[in-house]
Amino acid sequence: MKSHTKSLSIQNPWERVALRVVCVALAALVCTYLYLIIFSITNVMTMKEAQVQSQRIENSISMLDTQYFNLTKSITPEDGIALGLGSVEVPQYITRPGVMTMDATADHSTSL
Amino acid sequence: MGKSTKSSSSMVFRSRVLCAFFILLALLIIARLYFVQIVHGESYAAQAQSQYVEQNSDQESRGTIFFTKRDGTLVAAAVMQSGWRIAINPSQILDAHAAYAAMNAVTPIDEGKFMDAASKKKDPYEEVAFRLDDATEAKIAALKLSGVILVHDQWRNYPGGNLASQILGFISYRGNTRVGMYGLERQYQNTLSISNNGLFINPFAEIFSNISDAVKVDPTDGKGSIITTIEPAVQTQLEKVLNNVMDQYTPDFDGGIVMDPHTGAIIAMAGMPSFDPNTFNTVDNPTVFQDKLVEGRYELGSIMKPLTMAAGIDSGAITTATTYNDTGCIIRSGKRVCDFDFVPRGVIPMQEILNQSLNLGATFVADTMGHPTQTKYVHAYGFGSTTGIDLPNEVMGDLSPLGNGNGPDVNYATASFGQGVSVSPIEMARALASLANGGVLPSPHVVSAVQYQSGIIRAVPIAPGVRVLATSSAETVTNMLIQVYDKALMKGTLKQEHYSIAAKTGTAQIPAKGGGYLPPGTYLHSFFGYFPAHDPKFIIFLFAFKPHGQEYASATLANPFLNMAQFLINYYNLPPDR
What 8-state DSSP symbol labels residue B559? Predict the structure, then answer.
């Protein structure tokens, strides 16, 4: 009986090592978990703000595109003339000679 | 003593471990409280109002549909807009007139509807105004009126109004869910509908989701916005041209397609009359929702003759030097088949079959190559099967009169000039594009890419083209069609000196219910052309159903075609090719 009680009260030398390892692992896990939580919270806050911002931008895009389409529909050939642009109804065509027709007598020499 | 010190320090240590454990537990509970109260707080508050409002569909967002301008920039054609709607709890409205006056001073509200809603004292929720912006909502909220509820609202806005309405479609409620009805909204319902059930809590899950989007085999399996090949300026011009045809010749309806003949990209596609998808619920005649270019099937007439000619040349049955004796009318299977004017012309070459659009000439080509061969080519052109265009409810042509090539002779005679067999306009446009594409059928499509929420854009793979004709056969017919446009069509008055255009008209009889055809004077007009003919950038197909005032398609559609062609030449700065 005395020896039984005695064996229970004796601390195993590996116990302390094991406890330290477990504590370190637990601390690492806790730190990782806290990091993940903080990262997630920050991400959620940023995503929430981004979503609100995104909706505002979508609304702006919608209004601006509506204006764009309304404006393009209202453009007439007379507006082009008023801006000084020429009509494309009578285009001018020019013929550009190819490289082979360049003047063969031209002096291409360079002097130093 | 030493033993006692040791055990008490051990006790302290263990106590500290326990303390740390409980502190950690408390931190976990605080974090959980943050998620419940801050992250999901609005959702739970909204659920508390669920006895009044079903919020589920409003939690669903929707991707944008984009047009693509010629310089590659994207323009939103369909986009979600956020705002507010006003609802009232009639039992809590103290003075309906005062409440109405206060709110109407901020934003117009229908008085009759408001008073009617306010009188329903047993109803806890009645909506009275919709689609309000944030500024208006803030002003209404500042009034602090009893019984007035401001609810977040989301709706689909189509900034272009009528523009490409039949291609875009619109969204409507099916039960409590918003779904696409018609057009791209319906075809890409799964891609466009994005569920917003809570934000991504785990950013790593979001990363994996983005990677998954990037490697999906079919990009349309992911969720996001779609980018179309529709060019808004070209679409606007096409709709203007079609509206002019409607005004001038008052057909029942008309339609047009502008397509890249090499890739099958649809640059513009429209049908008139159309509608405004922003106010689709006010439309009297819902048939305007249908895209008749895809969902309709017609006997398109003489526009088939170039394809018959190409088949004859490709099969070796005829050459451009072949001639035939045109007697004005012939008998096939006991039925009379005639040219449009019943006039015999004697011995004439193949070019004149296209120049003068001679039915007997087309019949000659069909007879010479043999009906089984003719049937084989008609099927090869894609008639009788769908093109696979990414729009809903596509119909396939009806080639039943041809059977397997052993039917009555008259069926093949009429099919050679586009009567007796019915095809959809998009099928015809694709088949004709094979002449512009060196003998290869392109794959018509409207959507070019999907843009995911992460910003990743993935191109939608396009089915490879199918070769129908030898390149030389397509080139031969192209040269013939250039002759048609330069010399025969409207006596050559539309010839463009510096641009080669290959084109052909079609004036088809319309089948009557119960058999036969409608009386003379009631026709379907069609026109197609591609340019620059030897290196085409565009093919244009136009049609008008029962136009009035003119008998032939050359009178109704030739100038609209040229109008559209000149616009495209100038807009895209196409260099002259002659």
Answer: H
Q: Are A61 and B133 within 8 A, CB to CB?
A: no
Per-residue pLDDT band for B36 (boundaries 50, 70, 90) equals confident
The shortest CB-CB distance from A48 to any of B163, B199, B203 is to: B199
Per CB-CB distance under 8 Å, the chain A contacts of B75 are: 65, 68
Residue boundaries of the structural domains of chain B: 56-228, 233-571
Burial class (CB in 10 A: 0-12, 13-18, 19+), B303: buried
Nearest to B301 by CA among B499, B101, B153, B505: B505
Question: What confidence score (pLDDT) does residue B47 get?
Answer: 66
Interface of A with B in 42-101 (CB under 8 A): 43-44, 47-48, 51, 55, 58-59, 61-62, 65-66, 68-69, 72-73, 88, 93
pLDDT at residue B195 in the model: 72
CATH (residue range B233-571): 3.40.710.10
Residues B2-12 pLDDT 10s: 556 666 677 77
pLDDT, tens digit, 9 for 90 and up, residues B390-442: 999 999 999 999 999 999 999 999 999 999 999 999 999 999 999 999 999 99
* Distance (Å, whole) CA B335 – CA B504: 27
Q: What is the DSSP string of B52-70?
A: T---GGGGEEE--EEEE-T
DSSP string, chain A: -HHHHHHHHSPPHHHHHHHHHHHHHHHHHHHHHHHHHHHHHHHHHHHHHHHHHHHHHHHHHHHHHHHHHHHHHH--HHHHHHTTPPPSSS-----PPPGGGS-TT-------
Say yes or no: ipTM exceeds 0.90. Answer: no
The minimum CA-CA distance between A75 and chain B, rounded to whole Å, is 11
Q: Which residue of A has its CA nearest to B567?
A: A88
Q: Which residues pair with B530 in a beta bridge?
A: B502, B539
Find the mean pLDDT for residues B499-523. Answer: 94
Q: Which two tokens stand for residue B564?
A: 């559209």
Interchain pair B79, A65: CB under 8 A: yes
| pLDDT tens for each residue of B430-483 | 999 999 999 999 999 999 999 998 888 999 999 999 999 999 999 999 999 999
CATH among 3.90.550.10, 3.30.310.250, 3.90.1310.10, 3.20.20.210 for B56-228 = 3.90.1310.10
B89 CB neighbour count, 10 Å cutoff: 17
Half-sphere exposure of B570 (CA within 13 A, CB side): 16
